[in-house]
Task: structure prediction
Amino acid sequence: MGPISSADMLPGLALVLALGAARTIPIVWLVPAFGGRALPIPVRLAMALLLAAFSVPHSMSGVVAALSPTPGLAAWLLIVAREALIGAAVGLVVSFFFRAAEAAGVLIDVLRGSNFAEVLAPDGGTRSSPLGALYLLLATVIFLELGGLGRLAVALERSYEALPVGAGPAGASVAGVQAQLQLVLVASAKLIESALGLAAPVIVALLLADVAMGVVGRVTPALPVHFAALPLKAVLGVGVVLLGLGALDAALVAGWPAWTALAERGLGLDSR
Result:
């Protein structure tokens, strides 16, 4: 047998990259650390292809097995849908780490006076939360400091050994879909738990401030406590957040391994 020409290799390599991108595009699209809507669509697609290129040596064997025998159109659609489902589930789980932090900041803004705290975002005139943006930025910095991008790339490489491209009978595929949906439900519950936990110190401080204002209002009914409480609660919320940034940083760092374990579970690495 003669050497394989580049003309024969290029279509195969393009197919491997395309199937790999089906798994990586949802991750790049959903995880805020990859830039989100701030980056143009071509840039995000390029990042997804680059992430898929790192896994080519691991995904190649799965693609070769999937091509024997050559699948029909329906089989190709199922393979691409399966890869996209895996990527979407993992992307959602990883993004929930950021969204939990953002939700904590939004909750704090709401409790300290949503109309007072929210400002119009420069894009589209939609409302945004200043503390939500701050918490999201802090979570992104922690993700990068902990080597989240590198660990995600390594986990993707290993995932092709646990979840090869197009592998498994129909029954196993159905079970895989159920497992991914269950994983998203578990991660959603953890998102709510994490958001409440991150916002808990400020929530307690604001509730105590409300109690104190209520007592003052009962003692001096003539004093306009309600109007005075609005700016005081806004300032108190920001003050508690600034004082507790160190504790917030520690809480996000301590919670990251649990999100990593969930992401690896979505990639089939939980038992490896």
